[in-house]
Amino acid sequence: MSKAYSKVRAFTLIELLVVISIIAVLISILLPALSAARAEGAKLKGLANMRAVTQTALNYANDDPKGIFGPIHPAALQFRFEGYAEYGGGPGDMNYVGWNDNFDPRTRPFNKLMIGTEIVANTQPGDRGVFQTFQCPGDDFGWQFWPAFGSDRRETERSYYTANGTAFRMNNLTFSDGAILGVYGRPVSRIPDSGSTVGFMEARAYQTLWTNEVWGELGRGGLADLLGELTGWHKSRGKFNLSFADGHGSFSDMGKGTFYEHIDSQEKDVRGTWGRLDCLPDEAGADVAARN
């Protein structure tokens, strides 16, 4: 009786181990698929939010007497590099974007359109229970750390939404001489090609200005080659969510081999296979020359 019981027990244990092994194999197969599905969902949700913000910009332009796509905050003229985050969203812990600061969420133009005037100062930077349209469900990290890049630690490898109250940076392509050649503060009629001109993007998409291997300042001298392409919010090297000034969005490749050489007579154009950041007028044949 004892031997028979031992055999039955042994078989039971073996069967249990087999079942556990099968379950473990199934989990190992399903988990990556579930993780990929969640990541894809976060990417699509973030892109949908970005498109909603872009549509708000177009609605703003329709109502604005001058047709301005990228609204100018009342306090913006006090600052040199304005326009990238204070169009809308919640409080941040960067300078000037908290409650009672210059870019208080209660005064941001898009908030007035999307939320109205009933905005109460009771949320903290990074609170994802409110201002949801300005959020990306993915890891919305700000600047990726690069040696000597000089970015603010509050925007480096941590949430851009926590830092600025929005996960989406407006295209305010700005050069050191003070020229703003992006969509910020610009009438829709002065955006040459709205279907290819970036309206909003994640911070690291903008960072490619410095890190691309064609003319980026950190690209020259080998840093771009040494450290590789930037990693986007959705763990894809060189690929970022972008929305364009006509309202559509895309998950675009801004990695190696996608940037065009500057046009010699301008040297402020920022263009590639993914589209363009500048609003400079095209010269005859210039785009063709830049692609060859």
Descriptive account of the structure:
- By secondary structure, the chain is of the alpha+beta class.
- It has one domain (2-291).
- The chain is 32% helix and 7% strand.
- It has six helices and six strands, in the order αααββααββββα.
- It has helices spanning 2-63, 109-114, 160-164, 203-211, 223-227, 286-291, and strands at residues 169-170, 198-201, 239-244, 249-253, 271-272, 275-276.
- The strands form two sheets. Strands 1-2-3-4 form a four-stranded antiparallel sheet, sandwiched between helices.
- β5 and β6 form a beta hairpin.
- The longest helix has 62 residues, at 2-63.
- It starts with a helix and ends with a helix.
- 39% of the residues are buried.
List the helices and strands and how they pair.
Blueprint: H1 2-63, H2 109-114, H3 160-164, E1 169-170, E2 198-201, H4 203-211, H5 223-227, E3 239-244, E4 249-253, E5 271-272, E6 275-276, H6 286-291
Antiparallel strand pairs: 1-2, 2-3, 3-4, 5-6
Which radius of gyration do the C-alpha atoms yield? 24 Å
Would you report the number of β strands?
6
Structural class given helices, strands, pairing? alpha+beta
Number of domains: 1
Straight-line N-to-C gap: 86 Å
Give the oligomeric state of the chains in this entry, treating copies of one chain as homo and distinct chains as hetero: single chain
What is the topology, as strand order, of the major beta sheet? Answer: 1-2-3-4
How much strand content do the residues show? 5-15%
Note the total helix count: 6
Query: In terms of per-residue confidence, which ranges show pLDDT below 50 for 5 or more consecutive residues?
Result: 284-292
Q: Estimate the global geometry from the Cα principal axes.
A: globular
What's the story with the biggest beta sheet? 4 strands, antiparallel
